Amino acid sequence: MEALSHDCAHVLVDGNRCPKWRWTSTAIVEGDAKCLSIAAASILAKEARDRMMIEAAGAHPQYGWETNKGYGSPKHLAALREHGPTPLHRRSFAPVAQMAML
User: Can you tell me the distance from the alpha carbon of 20 to that of 26, in angstroms, rounded to the nearest whole number?
Assistant: First the structure.
């Protein structure tokens, strides 16, 4: 699902670089602290992600996602060590990336 409309004039990105896409955009370091629209989008994205993690917890109950929302809690890290990562784990998540190097 593409969240941006095709007629979007300009995108503000929280970070130090913009993705390679068709929209004109500006990266703003610490944008969620400097720009109200980025801050609002950040809250909406976090709420959507939390709902996705609660739903995913049904398929992967051992990770405790219904409470830790995918953050590196002790229960989540212990489950990663015991069960390994799922396809839902970001490969850039440090504990997963470290496992890949073993």
Answer: 12
8 A C-beta contact, residue 25 and residue 14: no
d(Cα 12, Cα 26) in Å, to the nearest integer? Answer: 5
| 8 Å CB contact between 37 and 23 | no
The reported pLDDT for the residue numbered 5 is 59
Q: Which residues of the chain have pLDDT under 70?
A: 1-8, 101-102
Q: Where are the alpha helices (DSSP H) in the chain?
A: 31-34, 36-57, 65-68, 74-83, 94-100
Whole-Å CA distances, 34 to 17, 38, 43 = 16, 8, 14
Q: How many Cβ atoms sit within 10 Å of the Cβ of residue 97?
A: 13
